[in-house]
Known about the structure:
By secondary structure, the chain is α+β, with helices and mostly antiparallel strands.
Amino acid sequence: MKKKLVLFTICAALLFTGCSAGKLAKTVKDVTDSATSSKETPEPTPAGTPEPKVTKLALGKKGTIGDWKVCVKKADIKTQIKNGSYRYFEPSKGNKFVLLTMTVKNNGKKEGEFLPRVGYEDTLIMATLCYKDEYEYKPTELLSFDKDLTTKKITPLTTKKGVIAFEVPKNVAKAKKKLTVKIGTTKEYLVYQLK
C-alpha cells in the first residue's frame, strides 16, 4: 500500500511540474522498478474470522445463546394461522407457513427483546430457516398476534411460550426433513433439525 502511495505521489508531482511524456514514462518505470525491488517486508494479512460456535439440537431440547435459553418444541406446516375467532394470517399464493412452537427465557439482568429488528451484528439474536443448507428464510412478523415471539420484550428470569412463523414456498414446506432452523448470533447459534 505504501509503495502505491509513493508511486502515485511521484507521478502526480512529475505531471504537475511539466515533464515531457517520455521523461515521465521513464521516471515512472524507474520508480516502479525500484519499488518492486526493495526488500521491504510485506504487510501482514489480517487473520480470518473465526468459525461460529454451532450447537446442534433435536426438537424439544434446550440450548443457550447469550442471555437466552431457547427450546424449539415442534414445527408445523400451516396454510393459515388463526388470531382469535374471526381473524387469521394467510401466506401469499403458492406459499405456506412453517410454524415453530417454542419457549424463550431471558436469563439476563435487564429486559431484552427476542429477535429484534435492529442491533449489533455480533449480539443480535436472529432466526433463520434453512432449506438444504442453501436457501434461507427470515421470520414473518405476525403483527398484533400475542403468541408471536419476534420483537417480544421479555423481563429478566421470565419464560415466554409462543411461535415464530416463516413463509416459504409450498415445495420447501413439503420437504420438512430437509429444513433446519438457526437461532443465535453471527458468532454462535443453535441448529434444530425440523424432522
